[in-house]
Amino acid sequence: MRRVVPGAWMVRFSALLCAVFLLLPLASLAQHVGARAIVNAWRMGGRSAVITSMTCTMLSMAVILVFGTPLAYMMSRRRTPFWRLVEFLMLIPLLMPPLVIGLLLMYVYGPYGGIGRALSQLGLVATNSALAVVLAQVYEALPYYLFAAQAAFSQVDRGVERASLSLGMGPLATFRRVTVPLALPGLCVGLAMAFARAIGAFGAVIVMAYYPSTLPVSIWISLQEQGLPAALPLAVLLLVVALPLPLLVVLWRRMRDASSPV
Amino acid sequence: MLQVQCEIPRRSFVIHAAFDVGEAEIFALFGPSAAGKSSILSAIAGFEPDARGIVTVDGNPLLDTTRRPPLHLPPWQRRAGYVEQSPHLFPHLTVLDNLRFGVRDADANDFMAQLIERFGLSGHLGEKPYQLSGGLAQRVAMARAVAARPRLLLLDEPLSALDWPTRRQLQDVLVALHRDLHIPVVLVTHQLAEAQRMAHRIGVLDEGELLQMGSVDEVVTRPATPRVAALVGYTAFLPIEGRVVAVHPERVVLGARPHLGPVLTGVVERMTWLEGRRVMDVRLAQGGRIEHIPLHPLDSVDLGQAVEMTLVEPPVFNAR
Known about the structure:
heterodimer; A: about 260 residues; mainly alpha; MetI-like fold; globular; B: alpha+beta; CATH 2.40.50.140; 8 helices; about 35% strand
């Protein structure tokens, strides 16, 4: 028999209210933006913004994967005071407001920053360039991947890794054949979160790179110069490129978990 | 031959391990929980970076901290088959891929086929670990360890989570396999029956110290100290003629047989069942109690009845 919990309807009502609150703006977007407006936005500069955003985000994802994975692994496996401190300090970039990130990055990588000057010696410019966009995106998105990947590595049974080592596989082979396949769902979700964060990065990006304009920066420029109706179609473009990948990854993980509980 | 002479520091004590295991031998490390048994196995397998001392297999060092620089052969170079209580199968691989995981020899097909047959895995090769029962998973773990052709086999209570019939079956499989493999086997167990059934020799470990080593029969019938006696199942220590006599319920027979050992009298206080056998607790006339004395099916004993019992060749210790 189903138990009637006092106040249960209040819980249900609050839950539904919360879900509606989160989905309502999407419905209004569909109501206010037509297909023609999106096509116009695509033609009037949206296309180049999409290409800039996608290219820079893909580069950022590569950087995050290559440098974030080893750090996440060390944070999950080395429980020494040093790595615990590193783990704690990594919370700062995660929690830092994006605009502040942009200002700080400008001080380090900008024309008057130490690294910025060194980069300029190599002919690289870290402001108003694709490099600047990538730096800002990586800084904003990396912590999201880092903590998700750390959790994914922590969930891999150490006994299974021990079994691999005792069967003659070295640490690299064990990492490749055992640790990564078992951590893969968590790593993918982390990467998808980082992707969503990077492609939507605005605060740090606008400080570092007004040009080449990414989609979020283009939206802001349109909003400033032409108002809401001009900015909204670009926002739809951003959702179209930003949302499917993370949603598909989450869906894949759910289907995978349902088919084999490993 | 496996030769172990090492120390492993732990938070509350240091484990001292010193023993040899011949090629045709199964050596059981027996003792209570947290005695340090698993740590010794882990050190031999190469997973204890703090271990100090010397461990060799057939004269080849796995660990030698007396050298400069010290030698800690990494686990993946030791060729030590290591099976733990949990099977730790690779969950993303099928049974067959698990078995093949550590196999590098291209001509291993015959040996693999034999292992699959011995461990009864032929009907499960395409299954994933989550589809296997506990017993089957442990079979795969053992077959996988052996398939990699180890120089020694380290078994850390691999059967303790299984039901008794499965355990007994796998014990027989392991003993038969060992006869063919001819490699040293170290078995960690906290079940004396398992050590008795499988091992040629036994080492009793308590708080990091190997208290006694010898044949299973020797350790059980002639424990060196009261502590060893207690660990191998002696449940009562009775003062008799100024000395302490250790009583093992399995070595108590009904009736007075003075030529076999001391005769005691008492009253049957409780009768119950233990692991499929009828057992009784007897309150002794001299004071004290002996619990779980097994009864023969033909023994006719009632609750409250006065009985005479003989302790068969009990170990005797000096009173403190």
